[in-house]
Design a protein that fits this description.
Blueprint lengths: L6 E4 L2 E4 L25 E4 L2 E4 L3 E3 L7 E5 L2 E5 L24 E3 L2 E3 L4 E4 L2 E9 L2 E6 L12 E2 L8 E2 L7 E3 L6 E3 L3 E2 L6 E5 L5 E5 L24 E3 L2 E3 L4 E3 L7 E3 L4
Antiparallel strand pairs: 1-2, 3-4, 5-6, 6-7, 8-9, 10-11, 11-12, 13-14, 15-16, 17-18, 18-19, 20-21, 22-23
Length: about 260
C-alpha cells in the first residue's frame, strides 16, 4: 500500500508535511497518476513527451538532432566540412556547396555583389556559379524626350529646364505672336504688345471728342469730326442743310470745323 505522508506526534496531535521532490534531470516527465514527484524515466521537451533514448529533431526543421537520456535532453548540430553549408533537409544536412563565380578574370564568392568596371549603373551578384547583372532603376520623367539629358557619370537622365519663351502664345485662339508684335484683341481702342518674357501687355486708347456731333466709323476707335455730322440718328455731310427734327420751322446745317 501507499506509504502515508510523514507525520509526527506532538502532544497528541498529528502534523503532516509536503513531500520534497528531488529532480536530478533537466526535462522530467510530469508525475504519473497517483504519484507526487516528476520522473526522469523520460523527457518533456517543447510540450511533447519523449521516451527514454528517443532521438528527434527540433520543430523548426533544421538539422539539429536531440536525444532523451535519463530526463535530460542533449542536442547536437552537425558540423559540415569546409566549402559546404547546412541544408534545410535533415536527410542531408551538408549537401549544398555554393560555387564561386569566375567573371571577367575575377573570382567572386557566392552571394557577392559588385559593379562592372567603369559602369556604376550596373550591379551584379554571384549566385551558385552564375552572375546576374541588372541596371539601376531610373525614375519616370514627365518631360518630353528632347528635354531629357544624361550628364557625365550619371545613371539616369534628368529633365532640362524648358527654353526661354520666343513669343507670346494666346490660349483663347491659339495664335502665337513674336516678341515686339503689336495687335488689337478685337476692340479698336485697345492695343497689346508681346513682351520679351512671354507676357502680354495691353493698353486702352482714350478718345477726346472735339465736336458735339461726330461720326462713328466702324472699325475705328475714336469718332471722326471731319467726315460730317451725326444728328438725331442721321448722318449728314459737311455744309449739308436739313430741317430740325424738333421744330419744322428751323433749318440746320452741318459745319465741319
Amino acid at each position: 500500500w501507499d506509504e502515508p505522508p510523514p507525520m509526527s506526534w506532538q502532544g497528541g496531535r498529528v502534523l503532516c508535511d509536503t513531500v520534497s521532490c528531488s529532480v536530478p534531470c533537466s526535462h522530467p516527465l510530469p508525475a504519473p497518476a497517483g504519484g507526487c514527484c516528476p520522473t526522469c524515466t523520460g523527457c518533456l521537451h517543447e510540450g511533447v513527451a519523449r521516451a527514454e533514448g528517443d532521438v528527434f529533431s527540433l520543430s523548426d526543421g533544421n538539422c539539429t538532432v536531440c536525444v532523451c537520456l535519463a530526463g535530460n535532453v542533449s542536442c547536437l548540430f552537425p558540423e559540415c566540412p569546409p566549402e559546404s553549408c547546412p541544408s534545410p533537409s535533415p536527410a542531408d544536412c551538408c549537401s549544398c556547396n555554393p560555387e564561386k563565380c569566375n567573371f571577367r578574370g575575377r573570382t567572386y564568392a557566392h552571394g557577392a555583389r559588385f559593379s562592372l568596371d567603369g559602369d556604376d549603373c550596373t550591379t551584379c551578384v554571384c549566385q551558385e556559379g552564375e552572375v546576374e547583372c541588372s541596371f539601376t532603376p531610373c525614375p519616370m520623367l514627365d518631360c518630353p524626350q528632347h528635354q531629357r539629358h544624361l550628364g557625365p557619370g550619371q545613371c539616369c537622365s534628368t529633365c532640362r529646364d524648358p527654353p526661354a519663351p520666343a513669343g507670346c502664345f494666346l490660349d483663347d485662339n491659339g495664335v502665337e505672336f513674336p516678341v515686339g508684335q503689336i495687335w488689337s484683341p478685337g476692340d479698336p481702342c485697345e492695343l497689346c504688345i508681346c513682351q520679351a518674357d512671354g507676357s502680354v501687355s495691353c493698353q486702352r486708347t482714350d478718345c477726346v471728342e472735339t465736336c458735339p456731333y461726330p461720326i462713328r466709323i466702324p472699325g475705328q476707335c475714336c469718332p471722326d469730326c471731319s467726315a460730317g455730322c451725326t444728328y438725331m440718328g442721321r448722318t449728314f455731310s459737311n455744309n449739308e442743310t436739313f430741317p430740325s427734327a424738333l421744330d419744322p420751322c428751323l433749318s440746320c446745317i452741318c459745319l465741319v470745323r
